[in-house]
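Board notes (copied after class):
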Amino acid sequence: MKKNFPLPVLFNTIAHACRAIALFGLLISALPSAVYAHRGASNEVDACNILVGHERVHFTAYTPTFTTKEYCQSIPHLGMTNLVFDYDGKGLRNLTVEFEVTKEPEGTRVFYQEPTKIKSGTVNGVVDFSKFGAGNYLAHVAIVHKDKNLDSHIPFSVGLEGESSDNLPIKSLFIVALIAVVVYLMKQAANKRSARPSDV
């Protein structure tokens, strides 16, 4: 005759599973998110920075009609997009700088800020990318001041990749860990059951 699974062992198994899940959740919440570390230390490599000579310009794009998130390498939505170029230092503020965005590979100009000194260190522009279509683009920053002529750029795409969830890797990891904990606890309970002498 088979014995039923003892109730106290079942409660212990559930209690252990709950503790393991709570501990794992605490560890996950303590990990820093890459989203919050978007603008790092001044010497840190940032994919959203354009190096212009010895100075850096930070490029950010916003699509306010779709979301409040900021983008730089991949803008998921076609539509009105706010482009922001921020000087990280003060070196460029006294130089004449030109800003341009082109669609590649044809090089069609979609945004242009004529050469000027930007004392505030910030250039704002608006582009309706639905007029130009999904594709690859280049954001150009060029120094055109006296004897200096230096063009730097950063590639980005618009409308080619869907909106990604910032929490997707964490959620996936949590689900895999949860399944692993449940399988482990079920095996432990099965081993305890099989280790007991059977009734004859």
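Comment from the instructor: The radius of gyration is 27 Å. The beta strands are 49-52, 55-62, 70-71, 74-75, 80-87, 96-104, 108-117, 122-128, 135-145, 148-158.
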